[in-house]
Amino acid sequence: MMTPPLNEILEARLGDLERAGLRRAPVVLDGPTGPRVRIGQREFLLFASNDYLGLAAHPALAAAGIKAIEAYGAGSGASRLVSGSLRIHAEAEESAASFERREAAILFPSGYQANIGVLAALAGEGDVIFSDALNHASIVDGCRLSRAKKAVYNHGNLNHLEDLLKREAGKNRWIVTEAVFSMDGDVAPLGGIVDLANRHGAFVIVDEAHATGVLGPTGRGGLEDSGTAEAVGVQVATLGKALGCAGAYVTGSRRLIEFLRNRARSFVFTTSVPPVLAGMAIEAFSLVDREPERRDRLGENRRRMAEGLKRLGVAIPERRSAIFPLVVGGNERAVELAGRMYEEGVLVPAIRPPTVPEGTARLRLTVTAAHRAEDIDRVLNVLGRSLSGAA
Length: 391
Ligand SMILES: *Cc1c(COP(=O)(O)O)cnc(C)c1O
Known about the structure:
Blueprint: H1 6-19, E1 36-39, E2 42-46, H2 59-72, H3 80-83, H4 87-99, E3 104-108, H5 111-122, E4 128-132, H6 137-146, E5 149-153, H7 158-167, E6 173-178, H8 190-200, E7 203-207, H9 222-226, E8 234-238, E9 248-252, H10 254-263, H11 265-268, H12 275-290, H13 293-311, E10 323-329, H14 331-343, E11 346-347, E12 350-351, E13 361-366, H15 373-390
Parallel strand pairs: 2-11, 4-5, 4-6, 6-7, 7-8
Antiparallel strand pairs: 1-2, 3-9, 8-9, 10-13, 12-13
Helix pairs in contact: 2-12, 4-12, 5-6, 7-8, 13-15, 14-15
The structure holds pyridoxal-5'-phosphate.
Pyridoxal-5'-phosphate binds next to α5.
């Protein structure tokens, strides 16, 4: 039998995506990311990135990266267990631990790798993982890799979580949740989750991807915000969102971190993060504390956006994060709206399944500390026109 041409098979599958309104292709930006970006000769307002504190284009961050490259070179050589940690890896991990006020930290090349590494290393056959229905794909994949039984509780629903905790027995039991949900922007009920975990003998893992730098009196995230840091043994955080770089880290006890260094496969079997990233991470932690006014500006921008949306009659529940989901339902409608806004020079992504559940396609607007008041007024204007035009 002859092997069929792969490209034909793929073309057919892409055609299926196309017909479902799910075929995607990223725009190419000619220059750095930020509140204003360029595509060719045209300037766009960007309300899509997770660069909540506006650090991605911060000169001090770039300078720290350049300094790290000058001191340690471009590449890191191999996995750290093979060719050794660079001093700057150790320093970045000390910075992460001290930033989070925890015993120790471990760097990962990405949040995706941190989540699959942590879940598959900690949970195993005979265990149960209790996972929020809206948890990120990297958590979903980590659950699969772990071979533990997965019990999915309805989004943010403590009653349902408790039912499942009563029903599902296992060797070790783990509750995993995002602190701020990436596509909805709401905050997990961490206090209630910790309470249930204590009463039912489960461990808690919290993914702070969209909370770090945003929530809490000093921007440490959802655990600081809810006063649950003591009770949560495993904290995953990313460097690629509010911290403006890329990569991720996990913090917790010295034992936890030593265990992950040995058993997290996405740490063991991957080339360690390049010096540039370690150097930038150290600077990013410091910037969060040195420039707290960025958090204030983010708060002001968030309020301005929330009030503006309310005036437009867009129903969006109270948000404490920088994420505003405008759920429109159908994939085509979301794409159409995003297209209208693009025509007017505003980049807002249409988020579709599998990123969000079927039938909940949406525009996802994010504000950052770097947006000006007039940027927000402009996006609200354009949104208002697009909504009425597309109705
Ligand atoms: C973005 C994100 C990740 C993945 O982090 P990367 O560093 O981008 O791989 C993990 N969890 C959540 C909740 C996220 O939003």
